[in-house]
């Protein structure tokens, strides 16, 4: 079972992603509504992979990842960003930060699990 931490402020996207990932039977999903929520819960959950929304109020996905990387137990956990604004320059910046992949919104719920597993197996 792959332990996945999903950080997303949009309730509809959280619901769709959770359903899509759990139906495969490959993922145990913990969802957080904000970067701060993720910081509070991530270390205890000990995820195998983190999926972070880029645009969130309070703390962006990039800021959240930077803070999560300060936790020794999370510094090497693969991180995948989800964004509706997948510009080439931004993709390069996210990969330079250590993102394993960037998934564009809207995403395909049927292939989401496979995209995440592929990113874990072949980090960018």
Give an account of the 3D structure.
41% of the residues lie in helices and 23% in strands. It has a five-stranded parallel sheet with strand order 2-1-3-4-5, sandwiched between helices. The protein has helices at 11-23, 35-45, 61-68, 88-96, 112-121, and strands at residues 2-7, 27-32, 49-53, 79-83, 99-104. The chain has a single domain (2-119), classed as 3-Layer(aba) Sandwich (Rossmann fold). The two termini are 23 Å apart. It is α/β, with parallel strands linked by helices. The protein has five helices and five strands; from the N terminus they run βαβαβαβαβα. The longest helix is centred in the first third of the chain and has 13 residues, at 11-23. The chain is globular, with a radius of gyration of 13 Å. The model has no long low-confidence stretch (mean pLDDT 93).
């Amino acid at each position: 079972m792959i332990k996945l931490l999903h950080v997303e402020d949009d309730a509809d996207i959280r619901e769709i992603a959770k359903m899509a990932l759990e139906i495969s039977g490959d993922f145990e999903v913990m969802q957080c509504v904000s970067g701060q929520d993720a910081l509070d819960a991530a270390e205890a959950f000990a995820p195998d992979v983190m999926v972070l929304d880029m645009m969130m109020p309070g703390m962006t996905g990039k800021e959240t990842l930077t803070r999560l990387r300060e936790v020794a137990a999370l510094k090497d956990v693969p991180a995948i960003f989800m964004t509706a604004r997948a510009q080439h320059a931004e993709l390069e910046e996210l990969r330079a930060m250590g993102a394993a992949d960037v998934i564009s919104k809207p995403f395909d719920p049927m292939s989401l699990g496979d995209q995440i597993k592929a990113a874990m197996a072949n980090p960018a």
